[in-house]
Design brief:
The protein is an alpha+beta fold. Helices cover 19% and strands 36% of the residues. It contains two helices and five strands; from the N terminus they run αβαββββ. It has helices at residues 3-9, 20-25, and strands spanning 15-18, 33-39, 45-50, 57-60, 64-67.
Length: 69
Amino acid sequence: MSDVEEFSRLVVGARFKISELGATRLRSLAGKTGIVVEVSHRNTGVTVLFDGAKSPTCLHRDFIIAISR
């Protein structure tokens, strides 16, 4: 899958999981899932809400992977 196809799947409301790169860089988030709440068009940031979390977190888009529902 190309970078464009992968990025296009990261839309508001999409379910995601932490990618291998994200798990390597942010070990405390390994295996976590959630929902995308905002995708920045100005930079590489994606605001996400992890399952069970009360507040959103901003991550680099390479740290998450869209998953099917």
